Write a sequence for this structure.
């Protein structure tokens, strides 16, 4: 086990599978204690047990909707209660609801805004309050997307949230830098996860149109997150790190 984050305490939302799971695993591998969150109670409990079996009881699970304020506050409280402090927050939880702009329903719009924007905004807020109280600084990483940079069919609402998170990171430079808290976003492109691989053409399509010749992996994204959470990124804040194999430079449509 590496010790880059030895003694640090992190929260990762949406940690039950995919990118969030890999981020939590890598943080634990590198010495951090991690509070895992997912909306699926059984899944997040199983993931916590799995990681603890590998890295000596470094995680605890707290299930709940990461878009709800009560759950967000519970995550911060649990981190401090169980591990004594909070140093790193990764607001990874989000939902994607495709839909034609002309037919998009208010309920779907509100769900996307609540989880992607409200959840990330208030997790950053509550975490920052704790970090300021500790007087230790901290790292906040928000999960954006290349859809926050480039238009993508049937994702108008989702894209709004991902672009909004990039602006949130910029604005929080003004609010939080004096306390030693950095805020950055990671913007993944096409990434191989359990959900995306349900499309049998996903891997081959994105390999064809991505300059680096392949879709990204969850490890690619986790590596970017860990960099921004590390001491090596102490002078980086308000930025968006794009992990897309060069796709947004050429923006070839998958359709």
């Amino acid at each position: 086990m590496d010790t880059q984050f030895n003694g640090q305490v992190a929260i990762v939302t949406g940690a039950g599978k995919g990118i969030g799971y890999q981020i939590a695993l890598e943080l634990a591998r590198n010495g951090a204690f991690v509070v895992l969150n997912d909306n699926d109670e059984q899944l997040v409990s199983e993931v916590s047990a799995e990681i603890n079996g590998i890295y000596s009881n470094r995680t605890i699970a707290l299930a709940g909707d990461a878009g709800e304020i009560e759950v967000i506050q519970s995550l911060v409280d649990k981190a401090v209660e169980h591990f004594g402090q909070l140093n790193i927050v990764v607001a990874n939880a989000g939902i994607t609801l495709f839909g034609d702009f002309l037919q998009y329903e208010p309920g779907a719009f509100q769900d996307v805004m609540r989880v992607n924007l409200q959840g990330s905004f208030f997790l950053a807020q509550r975490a920052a309050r704790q970090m300021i109280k500790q007087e230790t600084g901290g790292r906040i990483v928000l999960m954006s997307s290349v859809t926050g940079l480039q238009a993508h069919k049937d994702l108008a609402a989702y894209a709004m949230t991902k672009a909004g998170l990039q602006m949130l990171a910029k604005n929080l430079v003004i609010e939080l830098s004096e306390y030693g808290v950095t805020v950055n976003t990671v913007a993944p492109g096409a990434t191989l996860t359990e959900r995306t691989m349900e499309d049998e053409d996903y891997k081959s399509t994105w390999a064809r149109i991505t300059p680096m010749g392949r879709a990204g992996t969850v490890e690619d994204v986790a590596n970017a997150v860990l960099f921004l959470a590390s001491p090596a990124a102490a002078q980086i804040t308000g930025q968006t790190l794009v992990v897309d194999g060069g796709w947004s430079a050429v923006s070839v449509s998958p359709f």
About this structure: The chain has one domain: 9-189+221-246.
